[in-house]
What does this fold into?
Amino acid sequence: MSTVKRAAYPGKDEDSIAGKPLRVRLLYALGVGVLGYFTFNALILLGIVQFIYIAVNKSKNEEISHFSRNLLSYLGEVLAFMLFLDDTPPFPFAPFPGNESGIG
It folds into this structure.
């Protein structure tokens, strides 16, 4: 099992990870956590919409599937950041999954 190495922030008596103070990491985590909460609820809603679409048309909507896949990837990035599995904050601090070019 790996552990997260903590080192003193230059010139401060605080813990840090990847050179940033933990209080900054906490603010990032709170912000993306709120976005993750809304993302999770949007995924539940998209699941219901996709179910209704399949019930009516007997086939799935590919646009809903593609968007849901991107949202699911984003939720994974949020959880990885909040659980200290990844030090890179997700969208809006990085490109949205499926749009790595950062355009549109």
Summary: DSSP finds two helices and three strands in the chain. Strands lie at 7-8, 15-17, 20-21. The first strand starts at residue 7 and ends at 8.
